[in-house]
Write a structure and sequence with these properties.
An 8-stranded antiparallel sheet has the order 4-11-13-12-8-9-5-10. The model has no long low-confidence stretch (mean pLDDT about 85). The relative contact order is 0.10. The chain is an alpha+beta fold. It is elongated. It contains 9 helices and 13 strands.
Length: about 240
């Protein structure tokens, strides 16, 4: 085949000429130089090398990886390495897509400040040790050492006497609070601070429905809805649940 110029190669592979010069300066391409005008000329082997270079860059080879590949004949070890990296990237993207879908579904499942009802199975909660909570504030650096505690899943269990226990999800074999299976009235509040949250909860509990259904020792479950909060910058979303 006829030799191609830099412009023709750039058009063939839809690359800017600056990218060709970069690859040449890095020693990844070694086209001939026209002695009359000093222009680069690319033969069939150069075209193959550039095609290989483009593919290798797309699948994750670094410049140093490509330089190393030009020193050996068997490229399978590098291809296996790249394949593993690609799979890791795919797994991460799938995980991120699931998280994004979860955020969207959480946002679309109900409107803020609207009551909705959920049927729950039995749920058990364990109080965080006192040395992990100060004035209702969690010491996360200490609390995270508690094996079952999840940094995005603190639960605030409030009795009618306004006592609040900071808890985490536990098992039937070890718990301080239990929420029995049943139907729960739920509501999501977007608030900027605890004062606004307390006001929202008070207004929610003034609903005549809860005045009729709440027993004296009925507990209120409050927790930050971390997934839904990710959709907002103006505050945090808290979910409040009451058995009805």
């Amino acid at each position: 085949m006829n030799n191609l110029s830099s412009g023709q190669i750039a058009e063939l592979f839809d690359l800017p000429k600056s990218k060709l010069r970069y690859y040449i300066n890095k020693g990844l391409l070694s086209p001939h130089v026209d002695e009359e005008n000093g222009y680069y000329l690319f033969d069939e082997s150069d075209i193959y090398r550039l095609y290989q270079l483009i593919i290798f860059r797309k699948i994750g080879f670094s410049i140093s990886d490509i330089k190393a590949s030009q020193e050996v004949d068997d490229l399978m070890p590098l291809l296996h390495k790249s394949n593993s990296m690609l799979q890791a990237n795919i797994d991460e993207l799938i995980s991120l897509q699931k998280l994004t879908t979860k955020i969207i579904d959480s946002h679309d499942s109900s409107q803020l400040d609207d009551v909705y009802f959920v049927a729950h199975a039995d749920r058990y909660f364990k109080k965080l040790p006192q040395d992990m909570v100060t004035n209702g504030e969690i010491n996360y650096l200490t609390a995270i050492k508690q094996k079952e505690f999840k940094i995005d899943q603190p639960y605030f269990i409030q009795s009618n006497e306004a006592q609040v226990d900071v808890c985490y999800a536990s098992q039937v074999s070890d718990y301080d609070h239990v929420y029995l299976a049943g139907n729960y009235a739920c509501i999501n509040f977007l608030v900027a601070d605890e004062v606004a949250l307390d006001l929202k909860i008070s207004q929610f509990l003034e609903d005549p429905l809860f005045q009729l259904t709440q027993s004296k020792d009925k507990q209120i479950l409050v927790y930050e809805n971390v997934t839904r909060s990710l959709a907002y910058n103006s505050g945090l979303v808290y979910t409040v649940e009451v058995c009805v």
